[in-house]
Specification:
About 45% of the residues lie in helices and about 15% in strands. The chain is α+β, with helices and mostly antiparallel strands.
Length: about 300
């Protein structure tokens, strides 16, 4: 069995060498006469080079024939079971089932192989968690999920944020029952629609004031598309499951820094425009403006 596998490996290797040298032949033919052939006798040099390549291919082909001759032929036809009857179907749709079945078997074999490797890795790198209990009699208090928060708690938190900024107006709607969608109007610069799930920000879209309030369609302006992309990054950065109020408040502070979107220059290049866009990125810690290429 091991000898058969070795012979198969030799045959495949010779086929690979043959294909590589045949590629060299076609490459030489496609390039034709080159500058390195010189001016005198370049036709003869090109023909000689081509003859050498063809001789190499001929030798490789002989090696492939010898390697294939050394292979052990299979003892008989493979047993395909009931799948052999698929080839007798007359309709074209059912005739294609056999190819799909073969692909599904290959996919299943790969899943089994990858699962075995993953299982071995998990067994050799087991992760054990240790917990320190300061009191055996005192139970840990179960924390309330940030997804399941009473509406009045969310409303009070949004109202508190609205009172923090005088140039930011927040209006609330509840098209999805308990979870609100707030529209933040930042002066005359932009407006943002923010969807909540409990006390977690789930989706943000930034648009111009003249655009629709549809939360699922992006702005038609490139500048607000960039601000929307950066808002998604900030939404993930400020996500805090243990302190959701702080996470929402930090995100709103970050969003408020866009009140100078069209007036503040980039902190790095000191230019207002780069690639026809203002600084659309705000640093997550310092809130300083940067262009996408300068951050």
């Amino acid at each position: 069995m091991e000898r058969d596998i070795e012979q198969l490996h030799v045959a495949l290797n010779t086929i690979k060498i043959l294909r590589s040298n045949v590629g060299h032949v076609f490459e030489s033919v496609s390039n034709g006469l080159r500058a390195d052939h010189g001016e005198e006798g370049k036709d003869v040099k090109f023909i000689t080079e081509l003859q050498v390549l063809l001789t190499t291919v001929n030798n490789n082909l002989r090696d492939v024939e010898n390697a294939v001759a050394n292979l052990t032929p299979p003892p008989g036809a493979f047993n395909l079971g009931n799948t052999t009857y698929l080839s007798q179907e007359t309709t074209q749709e059912r005739q294609s089932l056999y190819g799909q079945l073969v692909n599904s078997y290959k996919w299943t074999d790969k899943i089994r192989e990858y699962s075995a490797v993953a299982g071995h890795i998990l067994q050799t790198n087991s992760i054990s968690k240790t917990y320190k209990t300061f009191s055996m009699t005192k139970r840990r208090k179960t924390q309330t999920s940030i997804h399941n928060v009473p509406p009045d708690v969310i409303e009070n938190h949004i109202s508190a944020i609205d009172r923090l900024f005088t140039d930011m107006t927040i209006t609330t709607s509840r098209p999805f029952a308990l979870n609100p969608i707030i529209q933040v109007s930042l002066g005359r610069v932009l407006k943002a629609m923010i969807a909540f799930k409990g006390l977690m920000i789930e989706w943000v879209v930034v648009k111009a004031h003249a655009e629709s309030n549809d939360i699922w369609t992006e702005s038609r302006y490139k500048v607000f598309q960039k601000v929307t992309e950066n808002s998604h990054a900030a939404m993930c950065h400020f996500y805090a499951p243990t302190m959701p109020e702080l996470g929402v408040r930090s995100f709103m502070h970050w969003l408020h820094s866009y009140n100078t979107l069209f007036s503040s220059p980039c902190k790095k290049c000191a230019n207002h425009l780069h690639s026809n866009l203002p600084p659309t990125w705000r640093d997550l810690r310092t809130l300083e403006p940067y262009h996408e290429e300068c951050k």
